[in-house]
Design goal:
By secondary structure, the chain is of the alpha+beta class. Among the domains are: 105-200, Distorted Sandwich (Calcium-transporting ATPase, cytoplasmic transduction domain A); 281-308 and 422-541, HAD superfamily/HAD-like (Rossmann fold), CATH 3.40.50; 313-419, Calcium-transporting ATPase, cytoplasmic domain N (3-Layer(aba) Sandwich).
Length: 602
C-alpha cells in the first residue's frame, strides 16, 4: 500500500524528487524479492522468478527507468497478494476438517470421571460424552440415546439419531443427551486420526501436471536467462546495433518470461479442488489421485453396501425335515462367527441368545460361506457353490433374491432368503455418471445371477458380473483397465473390496463407517456414503483439470507472444508487466473458481 501510494505521489513532483520517490516505492515493494534473490544466489538456487524479477528491475533502474521498475514490483506484490487470498480461501475447508480433533476425552476409571488426552484412552474403556462435546474415539454406545452432528465429517447437515448399541465415530458432536461409549480402538486407529493423516499428507502427492510444471520451470528459467543475455549482446556485437536498445528489450524479455502464473496457479488449482471436495464430505488423498479421477471413463460398483443398503432382512425360510425355528437357530449359530451383513441379519432375525460353546471348528470360506461343527454335527451354511463343492444336491432352480442354503451332515435341510434395499441415488447414479463423461459403468457382485439381475433392472449398469469371489473382482478390474482408453474407478465398502480398490486406477471407499481395510486401500473416501458424491467427485476433478489446462494454455500463449514481440521491439515494460503479473492474476482468479463449485452434478 505504501509503495503504491508513493508511486502515485511521484507524479506530483519533478526531477530528482520524483526519481527519489519512485526509487523508494521500488525498494519498499521489492525489498523482499531482491533479498530473496540474493539469498538464493548464495545458496546455489539461482534461476527462479525472484532472480528474473530482481535482475530485470535492477536493470531498469540502471537504465533510469524508475517508474517501470517500481510498477513491476508493485504489481508483482499485488499478484502475490491475490495468491495468498486464494490459498487462504482454499485452506479454509481443509482447516475446518482439522478442527474435528477433540481436545480431550472424559474417561470413566474406577467410578471416577477423568478428563484426559484422547491418546491416553485405551481400547474397551468407557468414555462419557456430554451435549456439546465431540466424540473423542470410535466406539459403541453403552448407555443413553442422543443425536449427533456429523457435518464436519460428512458434509451432511441433518443430525444423526443414535441409540444404545449403535456405533459412533470420533469427530461427531453430541447434540442432546449424555451418552457413555465403549471405545473400540486406540486414538491412532480412530476415524478422526485417519482423516487428519489423509489431510496432512494429501499435499505431498503431486499430480503429473504439477511435476511437469516443476520440471518445466527448472529448465525453462535458465533457458530464458540465456536467451535474454543473447538478446542483449548479440545484435550489438554482430550487427552494430545500439546496446541500450537491446538491453532494454532483454529486460522486457526477462519480465515476460517469469513463470509465476504456472508455478503458482497449477498447484493452487489442485489444492482448491481438494478443498472443494472436502467441503462436500469427499476426501481425496492427493493431487495425483484428483488428476487420475478426472480421466476416469469406466466405473465399477460393488453391489452390497455400495449400491444397496447392505442391511438385509429375512423374508422367507424353506425347510426340509426340520422346523423353521431350529433351522434359523443353527444357521445363526454358524453365522455368529462372521461380520458379513447377511450373517448379522440372520443372527438378528433369530432374536435369541446364542450359546456359541455349541459351535466348534469354524472355517470361514470367503465368497462361499461357513463350515462348522454344531452339537457335533457338520454344518454347511452358504451359497449354491458351497453346496455343489460338497456334493449337496439342490434339485431346484436358482431362487431369486439373496439365498443362504443349509446342509447338516451332508443332507440339504433348507434355505433362508433375504432382501436388501437399494441405496438412495442408486437408480439415478448411472445417468448422472454418464453426464460427467463416464462411458462404461459395471456392477460387480458375489451374489447369484437372479439377485444381480433384480438390482441391475433398477440401477441399469452397462454390464453385470455376478457370482464373483474377491479374486474374480480383481481379474475383471484388471481386464477393464486394459480395455480401451480412460481410467477405471472402483467404488466399494467392504473388507473384500480392499484388493480391487488397490488395483483400480482410482479406488473409492464408500462411507466413514466402511471397513478400515477399504478406507486404507482407497484413494478417495466418501465420508457421507452418498452415491451422488461419486459423481460429484468426478465433476470436481474434471473441473480442476480443465482449469489447470486453461491456465497453462493462456499463460504460455500470452507469454510466448509478448516475448516474441519484445525481441522485435514492438512492446515495452508495461506490456511485459501484463504478460507476467497480469497473467498471474488472471490464472489465480481462474484457479479460485474451484472454490465456487456448486452442489449437484451438471
Amino acid at each position: 500500500m505504501i509503495a503504491a501510494a508513493l508511486f502515485v505521489l511521484s507524479f506530483f513532483f519533478d526531477g530528482y524528487v520524483s526519481i527519489s520517490v519512485l526509487f523508494a516505492s521500488y525498494l519498499i515493494a521489492g525489498y523482499d524479492v531482491l533479498w530473496g534473490a540474493v539469498r538464493k544466489i548464495f545458496s546455489g538456487q539461482i534461476f527462479d522468478e525472484e532472480f528474473l524479477m530482481g535482475l530485470a528491475t535492477v536493470g531498469a533502474v540502471l537504465l533510469k527507468e524508475f517508474s517501470e521498475a517500481a510498477i513491476v514490483m508493485i504489481l508483482f506484490q499485488t499478484g502475490e497478494l491475490f495468491q495468498s487470498i486464494a490459498v487462504g480461501k482454499s485452506r479454509k475447508s481443509i482447516k475446518a476438517l482439522m478442527k474435528i480433533k477433540p481436545d480431550y476425552a472424559t474417561v470413566i476409571r474406577n467410578g471416577e470421571e477423568l478428563r484426559v488426552s484422547p491418546e491416553e484412552v485405551e481400547n474397551d474403556e468407557i468414555i462419557l460424552v456430554l451435549p456439546g462435546e465431540k466424540v473423542a474415539l470410535d466406539g459403541v454406545i453403552e448407555s443413553g440415546n442422543t443425536s449427533f452432528d456429523a457435518s464436519s465429517l460428512t458434509g451432511e447437515s441433518m443430525p444423526t439419531e443414535a441409540f444404545c448399541g449403535d456405533r459412533v465415530i470420533s469427530g461427531m458432536v453430541n447434540l442432546d443427551s449424555p451418552v457413555k461409549i465403549r471405545v473400540s480402538g486406540s486414538y491412532e486407529e480412530s476415524t478422526v486420526a485417519k482423516i487428519l493423516r489423509l489431510v496432512e499428507t494429501s499435499s505431498a502427492y503431486k499430480s503429473k501436471s504439477e511435476k511437469f510444471i516443476t520440471k518445466f520451470s527448472r529448465k525453462y528459467t535458465p533457458c530464458v536467462f540465456v536467451a535474454a543475455v543473447l538478446t542483449a549482446f548479440l545484435p550489438p556485437l554482430i550487427f552494430s546495433q545500439p546496446l541500450l536498445v537491446w538491453v532494454r528489450r532483454a529486460l522486457v524479455f526477462l519480465v515476460v518470461s517469469c513463470p509465476c502464473a504456472l508455478v503458482i496457479s497449477v498447484p493452487l488449482t489442485f489444492f482448491g479442488g481438494i478443498g472443494a471436495a472436502s467441503k462436500k464430505g469427499i476426501l481425496i488423498k492427493g493431487a495425483n489421485h484428483l488428476e487420475t479421477l478426472a480421466k476416469v471413463e469406466k466405473v465399477a460398483f460393488d453391489k452390497t453396501g455400495t449400491l444397496t443398503e447392505g442391511g438385509f432382512s429375512v423374508t422367507e425360510i424353506s425347510t426340509q425335515d426340520i422346523s423353521e425355528g431350529e433351522l434359523l437357530e443353527i444357521t445363526a449359530l454358524a453365522e455368529s462367527f462372521s461380520t458379513h451383513p447377511i450373517a448379522i441379519s440372520i443372527v438378528n432375525a433369530c432374536g435369541k441368545a446364542l450359546d456359541k460353546e455349541r459351535v466348534t471348528d469354524v472355517i470361514n470360506l470367503p465368497g462361499n460361506g461357513i463350515k462348522a461343527l454344531i452339537d457335533g454335527k457338520s454344518v454347511l451354511v452358504g451359497n449354491r457353490k458351497l453346496m455343489q463343492s460338497a456334493s449337496i444336491d439342490l434339485n431346484f432352480s436358482e431362487e431369486a433374491g439373496t439365498t443362504v442354503y443349509i446342509a447338516i451332515d451332508g443332507e440339504y435341510k433348507g434355505s433362508i432368503s433375504l432382501s436388501d434395499k437399494l441405496k438412495d441415488g442408486a437408480e439415478e447414479i448411472v445417468p448422472l455418471l454418464k453426464k460427467t463423461g463416464v462411458k462404461q459403468i459395471v456392477m460387480l457382485t458375489g451374489d447369484n445371477g437372479s439377485v444381480s439381475e433384480k438390482v441391475g433392472k433398477s440401477v441399469n449398469p452397462d454390464k453385470i458380473y455376478s457370482s464373483l469371489l474377491p479374486q474374480d473382482k480383481v481379474s475383471i478390474a484388471l481386464n477393464l483397465k486394459e480395455e480401451g482408453r480412460g481410467k477405471l474407478a472402483f467404488a466399494g465398502d467392504g473388507i473384500n473390496d480392499a484388493p480391487v480398490l488397490s488395483c483400480a486406477d482410482v479406488g473409492i471407499a464408500m462411507g466413514a463407517l466402511g471397513s478400515d481395510a477399504a478406507i486404507e486401500s482407497a484413494d478417495v473416501v466418501i465420508m457421507n456414503d452418498s452415491l451422488f458424491a461419486v459423481a460429484e467427485a468426478i465433476k470436481i476433478s474434471r473441473k480442476t483439470l480443465r482449469i489447470v489446462k486453461q491456465n497453462i494454455f493462456i499463460s504460455l500463449l500470452i507469454k510466448f507472444g509478448v516475448m516474441f514481440l519484445s525481441i522485435l521491439g514492438f512492446d515495452n515494460m508495461y506490456a511485459a508487466i501484463f504478460a507476467d503479473v497480469g497473467v498471474m492474476i488472471i490464472a489465480v482468479l481462474n484457479a479460485m473458481r474451484m472454490l465456487s463449485t456448486k452442489n449437484g452434478v451438471s
